[in-house]
Design brief:
heterodimer, A: alpha/beta, 9-stranded mixed beta sheet, 24% strand, B: alpha+beta, 3-stranded antiparallel beta sheet, 2 helices, 33% helix, elongated
């Protein structure tokens, strides 16, 4: 049976169709979901895509976190469904208290777009199992509000419990504390990160690599990991 | 109509990139009277009818739950303005 992964579109989502494409390329069936609905349409996993929902008014992701469908998303998270928040989706997960901490304006005040090196710090989640701990990957980053912050004690707890999923390597592009690029929850089913794996899933359209221009596909294992998690859970 | 004003500021110990940028601009203009700038938000909630204790309590709840994010911000003031 084909794994069905929902992508929720909010007013101001930009990368919902890119996420659907990534899901298709990874071998699953993408299901378009709408923020104003209360129906997850029986999907096996969820992606909250990037963009600027509600123009980032109030705080990035804050109004989207109050959308009707988010009550179903929270229920699904509590039941263990794999949920990935990318960029604005990560901000929504933080605002919905499904992940810890907060995201503020980049320290340098600028929007930034670059191919970003990351280290996978936790390969024991629903979205990272096809990586290895410590693996270095390159995927695109593009954001204005990517500065990850939390209190010192909370940062210590996140590090101690292995909840830092990804860390920036080389350049810290936005002032994130402890170079944190992405997090997981305790259970490992909810993962959020600022960079964009869905833009690095097909040769010819990904970041440059030493081998060839635009050949980077380091984003693909996010989606194949989730498919494997769904298959393992239903086996 | 009465208005409830809610003031929200970034936490004192955290970086306020917007305030820092304005502060930098003032310094470039040669201003040395102000050593720092912090930027927050002011919400004006228009109330239909009277501001009862219940309405004020509702505003406090709203300020804590939605208008601010306690991880990065503090509610620094709630007052009724006629």
């Amino acid at each position: 049976m084909t794994t069905r992964i929902g992508v929720i579109t909010f007013p101001g989502s930009l990368d919902d169709r890119d996420a659907q494409r990534a899901i298709r390329i990874a071998g699953a069936e993408p299901v378009a979901l709408w923020h104003g609905s209360h129906d997850l349409e029986g999907v096996d996993a969820l992606v909250l895509p990037g963009g600027f929902s509600y123009g980032d008014y109030l705080r990035a992701g804050a109004i989207a976190a109050l959308a009707p469908i988010m009550s179903e998303v929270k229920d699904a998270a509590a039941k263990g469904m794999p949920i990935l928040g990318i960029c604005n989706g990560f901000q929504m997960l933080v605002e919905a208290h499904l992940l810890s901490g907060g995201l503020i304006r980049n320290a340098h005040q600028q929007f930034i777009r670059r191919d970003q090196r990351l280290r996978v710090e936790n390969s024991d989640t629903a979205w990272t199992s096809d990586f290895t701990d410590g693996q270095e990957i390159v995927i695109p980053l593009k954001n204005a509000d990517g500065g990850y912050i939390a209190s010192e004690s909370e940062l210590d707890r996140l590090e101690g419990e292995g909840l830092v999923a990804f860390r920036y390597l080389g350049v810290n592009p936005n002032g994130s504390l402890r170079d944190i690029a992405g997090l997981t929850n305790e259970r490992g089913n909810v993962v959020g990160l600022m960079p964009h794996p869905e833009h690095a899933v097909e040769e010819g359209f990904g970041p440059n690599t030493p081998d060839a221009m635009r050949s980077g596909v380091d984003g693909l294992p996010f989606f194949t990991s989730a498919i494997a998690a769904v298959v393992a859970a239903t086996a | 109509m009465p208005t409830i004003v809610v003031d929200v500021m970034p936490k004192a110990e955290l970086l306020d990139p917007q305030g820092k940028a304005v502060s930098g601009a003032l310094a470039r203009l040669g201003n040395d009277s102000f050593s720092g700038v912090r930027i927050g938000k002011r919400f004006e909630l228009t109330v239909e009818g009277e501001v009862t204790d219940a309405v004020l309590a509702e505003a406090r709840q709203l300020a804590d739950d939605i208008l601010s994010n306690s991880v990065i911000e503090d509610v620094v003031g709630i007052e009724v303005v006629e």
